[in-house]
Amino acid sequence: MSISPDWVLEALEERRKQALFRHTVIMEGAQVPSIEIDKNAYLAFCSNDYLGLSNHPNMVKAMHESALTYGVGSGASHLVNGHNREHQSLEEELADWLGYDRVMLFSTGYMANLGVIAAFAGKDNAVVQDKLNHASLIDGAQLAGAKMRRYLHSDLMSAQKILSGFTKDQTKSTILATDGIFSMDGDRAPLAGLASLCKQNSALLLVDDAHGLACCGKTGRGSMEIEGVTPDEVPLLVGTFGKAFGTAGAFVACSHDFADYLTQFSRPYIYTTAMSPAIVGATRASLNIIKSDEGLMLRQKLAANIAYFRQAVSALPIELCESETAIQPILVGDSELALSLSESLKTSGIWCTAIRPPTVPKGGARLRITFSAQHSFDQISHLVNSLTLALATRT
Ligand SMILES: Cc1ncc(COP(=O)(O)O)c(C=O)c1O
Prior knowledge:
The chain has 15 helices and 15 strands. The protein is of the alpha/beta class and 395 residues long. It folds into two domains: 17-46 and 293-392, Aspartate Aminotransferase, domain 1; 57-291, Aspartate Aminotransferase, domain 2, CATH 3.40.640. The strands form three sheets. The protein has a seven-stranded mixed beta sheet with strand order 4-10-9-8-7-5-6, with helices on both faces. A four-stranded mixed beta sheet has the order 1-2-3-13. A four-stranded antiparallel beta sheet has the order 11-12-15-14. The site of pyridoxal-5'-phosphate has 14 residues, from helix 5.
């Protein structure tokens, strides 16, 4: 291959020097707690498959059946002829479950956030965002060329101050966007307070509940269920299938008018191939599990695992986040230290990737430990013992 330009090599070297260089690793087999990487066995504590549905037999079977009927590829975008009966059924089932008029499928959560923000925002209006929002929400506002201001994390006073400065002299509504459950910290946004701020300031609230849906709330309806807010208060809800749903893809739930609007103006919806119908079939099976007694049981087991872990590490010299969710990060700060803790856990057979800037703010490196309903208490005890050892021998 041709020689790479100096500026590429320099950028790579800079990342290496800062202990921020990233690369993929190859995992053998399915996403389960016991994994194999480089011929070594590990217990994984970093997956987003919070309910352990990603290889559930009902879903594997549904995917196969759906592929037999509809094929593997959709073959076109939704607005050409890639939107088949399977897509329509999933949209209707999700809308019915969540209490929204309509649901629209997107190929990924990243694209759903770009697609919604870039359609609803532009140079004529502002997007107000939590400081810790997911990159895709931030990128959406940048893509839209909108004025963007970020308020202090989950701070209603800070959000109000920024909102009140923006709501005048705009032809379109201000958008206030927040994660429902923050992806790197695991805490929940104050949705009830944000909903009332949006009402007072005539802003539209957009909640990305990628990490809340299916695994938070008694029925799995996520942060909105826990916070007691309604679809009227959250006119735009984004959900993803790549996490607790155990498949891939995403959706936006909204009113009829908003869905019609997105259908005309959301470029990441219009100019892309519709989700694979086989994955849509698997996602419908996943939704059935999430709604069933089995789903409830999995959420209860996940909650028990989280409580078991928090209790077991209470005596360790670590900083946990205020999180009741499957995301239980251990804040480390320094990127090199986070890497060395992650390496040291590997020697005990634990796989937990260090998360470093720019995914988290500078100085915010961490071990993002996540739990699944499939972890056993014994496996969690092994994690805690390994953590104790890694912390005692940290350099
Ligand atoms: C809060 C949040 N929103 C959106 C996304 C993107 O979803 P997807 O992986 O489906 O692109 C992620 C994670 O990847 C996320 O954590």
